[in-house]
Amino acid sequence: MSIIGKKNNKKIEDDKTSFSINLRRGNVTNLIPKALLGFNNDIEAVETSIIDGFSSGETITMTSTSKDLSISSTSTEDNFSGTGGFLVIIGLLNGDRRRISKILQLNGQTQVSITGAADIITVQSIAVIGLGTGAPTDASGENIGDLWIGLTGDTLTGGKPDNDLYGCCAAGKNASAMAIQICGSTELLRSNSLTILSSLNGNDTGEILFYSMSLSGNITYKVNFPISVGTAPDIDISNLPQGSEGCIVWTNAIRTNGNNSISITAILNAFLDSSGERFVDAPIIF
Length: 286
Hints:
The chain is mainly β. It has one helix and 19 strands.
């Protein structure tokens, strides 16, 4: 099921203008496959970001301006000499709208600035790549607390920012599950498929909200689920439109009917494309 139709209803006369055909034939170069995985098991009757660690009603903050962001843990054990995580790698879109990564040392519940300057548009991923000296030496090592991204200098409660939230790696997971996709200012985001899985019970229904912020404008799109009762996945969308240069796509959810807290998993498969080509069946939408 396509949530957004063709840019027009004209029949594609020339295979050279079709992204999907040329992709299957191996004629499209400069593609980098990307997989987005978001998860949240606390979706209720208020809009919530599909980010592991976010509670019901918490949504990620997205702005187009550069900012100084920091990371902190809700546990004092996430540091050099602790029993939890110590080194993290953070994937982000910087102020020049380039995809970069930074490696940082955690300092427990104290904030550590990611770049040391107002040079971040948004954070896409957080992963623990090193443990404290007191952590287990086998594969059971993990971050003890939730790792939160917030504005540098924000007040904290137990290591969690009190105001705007920009990302999270849930305790014990070692890697974030945030439904966020980014591409640089010289790239396009060509979406391939999006699958939404949920734990709907009885008469529960929900709504997925797709947001996009790019150099060419902002888009919001909503999809109700489940599409049909008794089928899995609840939503399986193919041939989504491509994203414009420098775009950020993120996904929230809300339970629209029922009394149960819903668990949501969002999986987006896409390609980062630096070829600059345009195709009639892949319009610039988000």
